[in-house]
Design a protein that fits this description.
- This protein is of the alpha/beta class.
- The chain has three domains: about 50 residues; about 210 residues, P-loop containing nucleotide triphosphate hydrolases (Rossmann fold, 3-Layer(aba) Sandwich), CATH 3.40.50.300; about 160 residues, no CATH class.
- It contains 15 helices and eight strands.
- A six-stranded mixed beta sheet has the order 2-3-1-4-5-6, with helices on both faces.
- β5, α9 and β6 form a beta-alpha-beta unit.
- The chain is extended.
- The protein starts with a helix and ends with a helix.
- The structure holds guanosine-5'-triphosphate and magnesium ion.
- The site of guanosine-5'-triphosphate (GTP) has 26 residues, from α6.
């Protein structure tokens, strides 16, 4: 009791002393400031202004330094740039940068090569795009009767991309492109079709009725990519004139909502014809099913294409931009792939170092090393992989926050490690050192995986969030990683022995 009172009196005395010092300091500073100010005011004006300028400069410099140190740097968000148009130079630069980092850029590069080949040939590509069995192949066959086009009653008859030569009235060299129908069983074929549409100058969007939701979305996507879209209502032989007129109106509304260009001939109704099966009865009474060609009526489509090409405008530049976007998407996919592989390597290497370090330690258990070299290197390498330039302070803060969570997770990690090791035949009694090594390895493994999750979600290191991710996912990661890490520790131990 006495001691407590003494401490209180002591603290009170210190406060009183600090108060006196603060007042004295304030008086002293005020006096010198006023002194300096008086002299400046009396002295030449140039000195006054010079002095004020220097003071303001110093204050601004200090503020800037504090800002740099404390406030987080804003890293441009990759998702924002997904909407901005790309130039040839942008995409070339990105490719070169990614390639030097070790990313496989072949498929993105192939897009640029295909574009160059098409530019050199100077042909205009018209892509027939639409759901399966809407009559894309039949339309191409009607336009270019000599072409060897596959048409089938069964949906999904076209499974690859084919080009057929054609010529417009104005003498343009044209390629009619047939692609697989969308909305079938294979999502991969939808992608093939969409990518080919992206490479074309104009998309002829073929449908055989009002647009379903997916079709409307595809029209919107194509318009967003800057594609001139013509909606072609095929099989119009199945509708009477009033129905046709109502459908054309609906389609025009779809195009308008999708942000497509509403010009003359952007929505047309045609009949590609195609084959129908009819039962033929011969004079002897026998019946046979034969295919009969329906009459084609595609005049309005030919007119629409010719009109569109009368004044092609910036059709080439728009096609180029869409291909650059396609190449950028393929590059992003390749980068993701690369990150997945590389992050796995980084995690493995850190986990191995933790295991080896722990096996070599004299008294395992005293040294959880998250804040040490291994944790720092792993965090920095991972951030670099995700183009997130972290401040050293952020790395430190993340590791500190994670370290405080490790204490809670260690018993679980040890238990899982012990069980995991027992599952290996021939290990026999599991030595404590080995269990600790596996437990530490598991913690690094979990740390690495939570880092990958936050970095791929936010594109930068947000210490509190990354640490929370670590805490929330740790038990799941520990369970998932135990076989791998136990194997690693056993191998390392065998090597050491
Ligand atoms: N009634 C009618 N049927 C048509 C018309 N055009 C095509 N068809 C029929 O529609 C079916 C599908 O024709 P395709 O040309 O193979 O359709 P597609 O869009 O190329 O089909 P996928 O390649 O499978 O996506 C065939 O049975 C055609 O005979 C048309 O104008 N009227
Ligand atoms: Mg087809």
């Amino acid at each position: 009791m006495k001691l407590d009172r003494l401490i209180r009196i002591g603290v009170a005395a210190v406060i009183a002393l600090l108060f006196v010092i603060a007042i004295a300091a304030l008086l002293f500073v005020t006096e010198s400031a006023l002194n300096v100010w008086d002299r400046l005011v009396e002295g030449p004006k140039a000195l006054l202004y010079g002095y004020v300028t220097v003071m303001a400069g110093l204050a601004a410099g200090a503020a800037w330094l504090i800002w740099r140190l404390v406030v987080r740097r804003k890293i441009p968000d990759a998702r924002v740039s997904a909407e901005t148009p790309l130039s040839r130079k942008d995409i070339r630069d990105r490719l070169a940068e990614a390639e030097s980092a070790g990313v496989d850029v072949a498929s993105a590069q192939a897009e640029l090569q295909e574009l160059a080949a098409r530019q050199a040939a100077g042909t205009i590509h018209l892509c027939f795009f639409g759901e399966i069995s809407t009559g894309k192949s039949s339309l191409i066959k009607a336009l270019a009767p000599d072409a060897d086009v596959v048409v089938d009653v069964v949906g999904g008859s076209t499974t690859d991309v084919r080009h057929y030569r054609w010529r417009s009235e104005a003498g343009h060299q044209i390629m009619l492109t047939d692609v697989p129908g969308t909305g079938g069983l294979e999502q991969a074929l939808d992608d093939v079709a969409m990518q080919e549409a992206q490479r074309a100058h104009v998309v002829l969007f073929v449908c055989d009725g009002d647009l379903a939701r997916q079709e409307a979305e595809a029209v919107a996507e194509l318009s967003r990519l800057g594609k001139p879209v013509v909606i072609v209502l095929n099989k119009s032989d199945r509708f009477d004139l009033d129905e046709q007129a109502a459908l054309l109106q609906r389609l025009l509304e779809h195009l308008d909502q999708a942000g497509g260009e509403i010009e003359r001939d952007r929505v047309v109704a045609v009949s590609a014809g195609g084959e129908s099966e009819v039962v033929q009865r011969s004079s002897d009474g026998t019946e046979a099913t034969v295919g009969r060609q329906r009459p084609a009526d595609i005049g309005v489509l030919v007119v629409a294409i010719n009109r569109l090409l009368e004044d092609p405008g910036d059709i080439d530049a728009r096609r180029d931009r869409a291909v650059f976007r396609l190449a950028a998407d393929k590059l992003a996919e390749a980068e993701n792939e690369y990150r997945t592989q590389r992050s796995e390597q980084i995690i493995r290497s850190a986990t191995r170092k933790a295991v080896v370090g722990s096996l070599a330690a004299v008294s395992p258990g005293t040294d959880i090393l998250i804040q040490g070299y291994v944790g720092t290197t792993m965090t920095q390498e991972m951030c670099k992989l995700y183009d997130a330039a972290p401040r050293d302070l952020d790395v430190e803060e993340f590791l500190n926050l994670s370290q405080s969570r490790v204490g809670r997770a260690l018993p679980l990690s040890l238990a899982v490690a012990g069980n995991g090791l027992k599952a290996f035949p021939g290990v026999g009694t599991v030595a404590g050192g080995l269990v600790h090594a596996v437990a530490y390895g598991l913690i690094f493994d979990a740390l690495g995986r939570s880092l990958v999750q936050t970095l791929s979600k936010h594109g930068r290191l947000v210490p509190e969030e990354a640490a929370r991710e670590f805490e929330e996912g740790i038990s799941e990661h520990i369970e998932a990683g135990v076989r791998r890490v136990a194997r690693m520790a056993l191998d390392e131990k065998a090597d050491a022995d």
